[in-house]
Amino acid sequence: EQDVTEYRKTLAIRVSGFDVPKPIKSFADCGFSNVLTNAIAKQGYERPTAIQCQALPIALSGRDIIGIAKTGSGKTAAFVLPMIVHIMDQPELKKEEGPIGIICAPTRELAHQIYLEAKKFAKPHGIRVSAVYGGMSKHEQFKELKAGCEIVVCTPGRLIDMLKMKALTMLRTTYLVLDEADRMFDLGFEPQIRSIVGQIRPDRQTLLFSATMPRKVERLARESLTDPVRVTVGEIG
Ligand code: ADP
Ligand code: MG
């Protein structure tokens, strides 16, 4: 225990919650498949970043997470890698319809970056990723979603449009990521986020990431996450 406490200090990480899994020190501690391990190496990721050290084992254990960390800390892989494992654990992957994982981000640019990173880890597994944000016509997007996918990376407004058009169902969605939640709120997406969260089955795993935790985001987290572990990076004096 002492060893773990010391290690968390060196990561400048603060963790709160019940029965929190120990942080990992290397990607090899995650028990990833060879395919995923190779994809990580291909990305040039040699060792996990601080948030990844703590968030990966928590997410892999199926727990909800509130992740508070600045830009550039490596949050994307912290939620995408466990999402890939979560999807590969589904017994009837290709038989049912609709995404298993949904990632919401505030802007088209941020969603696009996540989309590119998610594809690098998803593709070697035959997992399909769809981008649901401005840039593609709604008609094209509708067709792509109808063809099927396991992961959707979206901005909240465009996902709502696609849900209204019945381009997808979220019946089998069990892994939800709200990335840069504070910025999504700043941009006025609270109603859309609440609508999306409200339409996804409550037994999902939910991960919320934010650089700051204003009261509104705190309230969303309290209402939408189950027994979350809170991981804060970079604020230990
Ligand atoms: P955040 O979402 O916290 O701003 P990103 O997930 O976008 O951070 O990652 C920031 C940068 O760090 C990206 O270029 C990403 O490819 C890189 N990166 C992420 N994890 C690692 C790692 N373990 N080792 C090296 N580079 C990494
Ligand atoms: Mg990010």
TrEMBL record:
Top-rank lineage group of the source organism: Eukaryota
Motif Q motif per record, residues: 25-53
Domain Helicase ATP-binding, residue spans: 56-231
DEAD-box RNA helicase Q domain span: 25-53
Family from the record: Belongs to the DEAD box helicase family.
Protein name per UniProt: RNA helicase
Entire protein: shown range: 210 to 446 of 763
